[in-house]
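ok new one. same drill as before - structure tokens go in, u give me an amino acid for every spot. 338 of them this time. try not to just spam alanines like last time pls lmao
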């Protein structure tokens, strides 16, 4: 049955949004269960988008269109022709230009009522803490394409208690996780997992020819849209499917799996707390863009760190690759989607 739309009151429109804003966001303001209250929360939100590539482009475009108050786009790379089949914010005219500047410009053009900034900064051990703590970000979105940056962001967000939404794709499969570090309760008996609970260290070389691997161009778009959906729900206080869980998507059979993540008491970051500053972790093989994936360490499986959640809406029914078979979401994690 279609959701019933209710017109926002005149006071809702005039006291919180300009006439032009009310028109631009009208379909969200009319939406029962969202409305002016959640639109206001979204307008007050600040998001750092790390990686203006295959995931960052669709996530950024929809977060801007929805009315996220501040979007900061961080990327040190430039647009290449090989990016165009999946990084849908760019055209051939943008080749050679800064991704951060190009994406920020297009987000501003899409929605003039939000603040958009471009950060052409390399995120490394010397800059990560300053970048993450420079602004009171409500959410960090990780759309990067290498393990080094992933571990830096994961460590930094945990140490600074910043919420981190990560997405990654490989081939025909994708994964999304929301680590809600800012909501950790110090007296809670069982703490939520961090990235290192699940992946204590980067993988060894997968043993495949890096140039021979690839990704279906539409998959980063699908994944980026799911990330934007989760981000909007998180920022407005709605329940999220990926909070302290992992969503695994298979584009072959259009299936979704949800797996709960369990804290590891022996984790060097959140358990033993021996990591006091973000540490760069180098994978044995530098794999470009969204092409890297690896098997979960056997010890993690033995500790039941990834537990399947029985959810009829997301239950996987196929045994094919990335959908319940040997490459199903519980056994591998992709590096990203550049």
């Amino acid at each position: 049955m279609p959701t019933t739309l209710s017109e926002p009151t005149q006071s809702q429109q005039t006291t919180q949004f300009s006439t032009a804003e009310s028109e631009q966001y009208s379909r969200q303001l009319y939406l029962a269960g969202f409305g002016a209250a959640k639109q206001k929360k979204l307008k007050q939100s600040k998001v750092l988008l790390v990686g203006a590539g295959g995931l960052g482009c669709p996530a950024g475009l929809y977060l801007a269109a929805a009315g996220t108050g501040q979007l900061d786009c961080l990327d040190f790379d430039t647009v290449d022709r090989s990016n165009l089949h999946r990084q849908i914010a760019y055209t051939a005219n943008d080749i050679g230009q800064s991704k951060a500047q190009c994406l920020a410009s297009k987000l501003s053009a899409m929605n003039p009522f939000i603040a958009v900034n471009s950060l052409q900064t390399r995120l490394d051990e010397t800059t990560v803490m300053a970048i993450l703590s420079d602004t009171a970000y409500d959410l960090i979105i990780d759309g990067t394409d290498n393990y080094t940056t992933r571990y830096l962001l994961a460590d930094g967000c945990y140490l600074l208690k910043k919420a981190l939404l990560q997405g990654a794709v490989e081939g025909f499969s994708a994964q999304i996780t929301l680590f809600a570090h800012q909501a950790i309760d110090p007296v809670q008996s069982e703490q939520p997992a961090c990235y290192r609970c699940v992946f204590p260290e980067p993988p060894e070389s997968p043993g495949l020819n890096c140039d021979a691997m690839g990704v279906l161009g539409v998959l980063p778009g699908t994944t980026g849209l799911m990330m934007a959906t989760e981000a909007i729900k998180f920022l407005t206080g709605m329940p999220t499917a990926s909070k302290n869980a992992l969503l695994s998507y298979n584009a072959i059979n259009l299936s979704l799996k949800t797996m709960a993540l369990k804290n590891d008491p022996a984790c060097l970051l959140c358990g033993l707390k021996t990591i006091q500053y973000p540490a760069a972790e180098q994978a044995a093989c530098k794999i470009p863009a969204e092409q890297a994936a690896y098997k979960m360490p056997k010890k993690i499986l033995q500790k039941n760190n990834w537990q399947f959640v029985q959810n009829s809406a997301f239950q996987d029914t196929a045994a094919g690759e990335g959908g319940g078979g040997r490459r199903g979401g519980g056994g591998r994690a992709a590096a990203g989607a550049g």
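The longest helix spans residues 218-235. and btw The CA atoms of residues 69 and 226 lie 19 Å apart.
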